[in-house]
Write a structure and sequence with these properties.
The protein has 513 residues and is α/β, with parallel strands linked by helices. It folds into 3 domains: 179 residues, FAD/NAD(P)-binding domain (3-Layer(bba) Sandwich), CATH 3.50.50; 139 residues, no CATH class; 116 residues, no CATH class. 34% of the residues lie in helices and 19% in strands. The chain is built from 15 helices and 19 strands. Strands 1, 2, 10, 11, 12, 13 and 19 form a 7-stranded mixed beta sheet that branches. A 7-stranded mixed beta sheet has the order 8-7-15-16-17-14-18, sandwiched between helices. Helix 7 packs across helix 9. The longest helix is centred in the last third of the chain and has 23 residues.
Length: 513
């Protein structure tokens, strides 16, 4: 039996949940389809016995006043999920060094830290701060990038000011270009630190990260912004967005995997047809006037088949693969963890690669009293993990797990006997969990050729198909994908003559956790 709705949203990660909740709150009849048995996507959660693990994302941004999540939850009239700010936001340990570089929340303390760690680099940090301020103010005015219609262009022009226009000279520059401009290109230690931080948030090192994106990434841990640790798990953010969707009358259909998207015949004024498998492998069909897709754009060729325009297909195939990830999910006695490191750390490491480590906080619900969860992730090329013969796959997993545990012994002092639980996920596991092609864990990478005006547009070449998520401006992270959802919804509603303006009614501040 075929059901109908006004707008179908595909994928209940943070972007899809945000888009569905925004549209439903504006009175649109919305159905949100999710292949998994829970929402959240890469920001989801799973349990192993007494332990709760965040699948991918382990921290959030945009909870500060005026931040993306704060604005959205004020619009929904709901409080933000309980969270506390991270201080330090991250501790970065370079290879061969005993003491970490700590990204303090207080800007003055962070300035003192970086002056001690990277003497002579202050011109670089001040230039980054200048670019960040103009970019952040620009983002807060909700521009549409890249523009594809006169309406889009009007929204973009309305968000410009002299500072943004001045910073536009750096649109094609990289962070490495800023280092050269400021006389810091010869500081190899600073470059190693920047490569670690930027790769984490942009999937690219300093010489391939757009300067305007990287400058903001490097400021995210400090006030008035900040990184936040959710009480309970990352799933709390998804649950709060589910609440916003339900309160507005939208539908969330879990265990509904989309297998085909069929656009209406050109000029027919007909509906999109969405086909897939629901619970118990039952086929479903859903008709919708419009579709908002939060899946990776690499999914579109298979879903749309010959309906995808050839030029757009070629453009998608020309993008380099996003990264995959190897992730250790473990648990240890809390007494075995070092003090003063904070909840997030990076280690420059060779085999299988540099680690990003997230620890649970005492009393945050992720582990029993006296214990802590440890999540350690490593970027890896995704495709080589597929097509392996089973014995070769398992051997490769064992070697990767041993390499990550060796890194954690170096960073945290953990011995083999300390592990109460340890398991490794590979891109194959992520493909099964998220449905993303090859288990890709990020967007397109924030290279200047794919950032801002040069990136994929939320307005697709097929009328009535809108895109959001980590491959769409402004990029990755829960805050970024939420803004991409807001941009797509504003375009969709404007085309219907219903401009979307976020309500500014204050919501409750995040708890101290």
């Amino acid at each position: 039996m075929t059901s109908r709705c006004d707008v179908a949203v595909v994928g209940a990660g943070i972007a899809g949940l945000t888009a569905a909740a925004l549209l439903a709150a504006d009175g649109v009849e919305v159905v949100l389809l999710e292949a998994h048995s829970q929402s959240g996507g890469c920001a989801g959660t799973f349990r192993r016995g007494p332990y709760t693990f965040d699948v991918g994302a382990t921290q959030v941004a945009g909870f500060e006043p005026g931040g993306s999540h704060a604005r959205l939850f004020a619009h929904f009239g709901l409080p933000l999920p309980q969270a506390h700010p991270l201080d330090p936001g991250c501790s970065v340990q370079l290879a061969g060094e005993a003491a970490p570089i700590r990204l303090w929340r207080d800007p003055q303390r962070w300035r003192q830290e970086r002056e001690r760690q990277f003497p002579g680099s202050e011109r670089f940090w001040q230039l980054c701060a200048l670019l960040h301020r103009s970019s952040w103010a620009f983002a807060g005015r909700d521009p549409v990038l890249p523009p594809r219609t006169l309406w889009d262009l009007g929204q973009l022009l309305g968000a410009l000011d002299p500072a943004v226009l001045a910073s536009g000279v750096f649109t094609g520059a990289t962070i490495a270009d800023l280092l050269r401009l400021c006389g810091c290109a010869g500081d190899g230690r600073l470059r190693r630190f920047l490569d670690l931080q930027l790769r984490l948030y942009s999937q690219e090192p300093a010489d391939r990260t757009a300067a305007l994106y990287g400058a903001t990434v490097l400021a995210m841990a400090q006030e008035p912004l900040g990184l936040w640790h959710l009480t309970g798990s990352m799933q709390r953010l998804s649950e709060a967005l589910e609440q916003a969707l339900a309160a507005a009358g939208g539908q969330l259909r879990l265990r509904h995997r989309l297998t085909a998207l069929q656009p209406p015949a050109p000029g027919s004024g007909g509906s999109w047809l969405l086909q897939g498998e629901g619970p118990a492998a039952r086929r479903f069909e859903l008709e919708a006037a419009e579709v908002v897709c939060s899946l990776p754009p690499q999914s579109l060729p298979e879903l749309l088949g010959p309906a995808l325009p050839a030029a757009y297909r070629r453009r998608l195939s020309g993008f380099p693969d996003p990264s995959g990830a190897l992730v250790l999910y473990g648990a240890v006695p809390r007494s075995r963890l070092p003090s003063g490191l904070g909840l997030h750390a990076q280690l420059e490491w060779d085999d299988p690669g540099s680690l990003f480590v997230s620890l649970s906080a005492a009393g945050d619900g992720r582990a029993p009293e006296g214990q802590a969860t440890v999540i350690a992730s490593v970027f890896t090329p995704a495709r080589p993990w597929f097509g392996l013969e089973e014995s070769a796959y398992q051997q490769r997993k064992r070697l990767a797990l041993a390499g990550i545990q060796a890194g954690l012994q170096r960073l945290l002092g953990l011995e083999p006997a300390d592990w109460l639980h340890a398991e490794l996920a590979t891109p194959r596991g992520f493909a099964g969990w998220t449905g993303r092609p090859y288990g890709f864990v990020g967007g397109l990478g924030q290279h200047p050729s794919r950032f801002g005006p040069f990136g994929l547009a939320s307005r697709s070449p097929l009328p009535g198909l809108w895109l959001c998520g980590d491959a769409i401006h402004p990029g990755e992270g829960t805050a970024g994908v939420s803004l991409s959802a807001l941009m797509a919804c504003r375009q969709l509603l404007a085309a219907r003559g219903r401009p979307l303006q976020l309500r500014e009614t204050p919501a409750a501040a995040p708890g101290s956790g």
